[in-house]
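Comment thread on ticket #2218

A.B. wrote:
> Attaching the input chain for the structure job we discussed in standup.
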Amino acid sequence: MVGRVPRIACVWYTYGMTPARWVLLATVLLAGVPAQAAPASIRITIPRDVVAQGEALDVTVVIHGGAERAQLRFAGRTFRLYPAGRGVWRTIVGTDPITAPGAHAIVVEAASPQGAWVSGRVPVRVRKVTFPTRRLAFDPERRALLRPEVAARERERVNAALRVLHPSPLWDGPFARPVEAPVSSPYGVLSIYHGQVRGFHTGTDFAAPEGTPVYAAAAGIVRLAEELPLSGRAVLVDHGLGIITSYLHLSSITAQVGQRVRRGDLVGHVGSTGLATGPHLHWGMRANGVRVDPMPWIAP
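C.D. wrote:
> Ran it. Output below, let me know if you need it in another format.
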């Protein structure tokens, strides 16, 4: 009979074969469960162990011995793990300006088909970024869009559109710039509207004349293509693995819900619909629900 012991009997870290690649191996012995009935170990692989606010990490988890379900926690948030092969799971972990800087850990918990749980962790440090501030004023008609119920209505519609997402990556390689135009407002800017702090800027703004073509940054499936109260005419593309790009304030939409787009396909044209002070493209990215900076995803 197996004696009762803590969930993790021993944990050790090894530095991977490639530079800046951490690997965690947690070997476990579970109380009252035969060795073949529960996951024997968890290996977590990440490309680096320091991430700046707004950046994302590609996480691969190998669960030796199999698992019926698994979840990942990081910096107070829970992230979905997507099956990527027998005993292999993958996800993209995002950070944003409200992710607390300092020491954190990616924690993975897995359950065997018999219901026994095992966990493993790998340390990650979040580096603080000093974001700039911007002050904006709107005309009375657009200022009415700042009411909380308007934002709630839009959030409900977007959540419904993103309820079903593709589990595996549909893109290959770096993302493309969605419009040929200069950046007018970067990601992470602290936004102050009429003297009130409204949070950080969740994407990158490109200043371009109305009607300028807007292109899909990478291959994916269009999940939303409609007019929203705050975002105006909007297109949201699902790239798989929890990665969503958004193209907002468009003057026109050329994509359709359910359409498969390739990198560089036309999705709409620059406009100033919704909560906007003039023509521009707001390009945003979500990594499993966290609004991350899309610019690091573009090839240098």
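A.B. wrote:
> Thanks. Noting for the ticket: The chain has two domains: 8-127, 133-297.
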